[in-house]
Amino acid sequence: MRRVLRRPAQESLSLVRRRAQPTTITIIRLTVTAVVAFVVARLVTGDNVLAPLTALLVVQVTLFQTFRSASQRVVSVIAGVLVAIGLSHALGFTWWSLALTVAAALTVGYALHLGDSVLEVPISAMLILSLPTDAAGWGRILATLIGAAVGLLSNLVVPPLKVQPAEEAVDDLGRRLADLLDRVADDLVEGRGAGAAPDWVAGARRLTAELDQVEDSLAQAEESVRLNPRGALVVDPRVYLRGRLEALQNATLTVRGIARSLNDSVGLADEHSPVRDPDAARRVADVLGELAAVLRPYGRLARSKSVDRGALKADVDRHLEQATQRHEAAAQTLRTDSAAPQSVWPLRGELVSHLDRLRTQLQPAPPRPQPRSGVTVAPSGRQRLRALRGWLRRRSGGRA
Length: 400
Fold this sequence. Notes:
By secondary structure, this protein is mostly helical. 73% of the residues lie in helices and 0% in strands. The radius of gyration is 30 Å and the shape is elongated.
């Protein structure tokens, strides 16, 4: 009951990522973008559906992705039109000229490294090759430029920021790791470890499988800040969120190692198993409980707003100190059984190492030492290389 009251309702990390941009807002945004592109293209070029099509294809999650998609699509359309115009005058429109046009357009597309828009080059070339006049080609280029401009404008009006979903995903990962450790600790204390060990391993594997989703969420957050005028209003996620996620990723792998070590220890005799022996199980549970108490505020620190960072850091430090004391007691208990057979020691040593590794991974990074005045600091490799280049340039009269 204590664990249920302490743990909020679980939600998948993918739902956390989608919460900041509901489907309804996306539908409205894309609809308005398509309509504006159609109206502008109709005023400039007449009735044209290529502009709204391009606008829908260009709009992406972040402003940087939209700019990259727009530039690739414009270049691909221009390249396809130029290839078609050049070959149509020389070859006409036959099956073999179509084959040459597609091959040439694909060659140009791959040479320009257009990525996902590479097929737009032969598509544009085939459409223009089948038309009798060059005006259609230039009209397609103009419609593409209008659609790309409207797509960019839709992201510039309210440039989306994806930092908050990334913060929520990292916080959720720390909370779920803590919930798993609490469950393992409760099962060990209450004597359910032997039967619950496979569930521990399965829970750790699920968290490991979801690491890619958290990584994708952070990658979107980092891209949403690039080229974004609103980026100055938020803390750069590359500064504070990347390091915290890397620590939690390592912690997730270590938690999986702890679950696997405990599961392997179930097969040992009762008096030698850290899962079946009540004293050893209680010692291990004490360490896991303190580490769970570290993970909750540690993940909560990923949020840049509406948190008391001083209180959270104090909680992390306090529970880390208690986890160190608990770990020493657990290690002493697991090492003092001199009557245990030799086959028992690798599993016990592995468990002690995993517990110590998890505690170390959650330690705050030590500050870099600042050189005091009057103390000469050894030059770095880049500084030594720069000094060597200057010496060679002076010896050769500036020619090196």
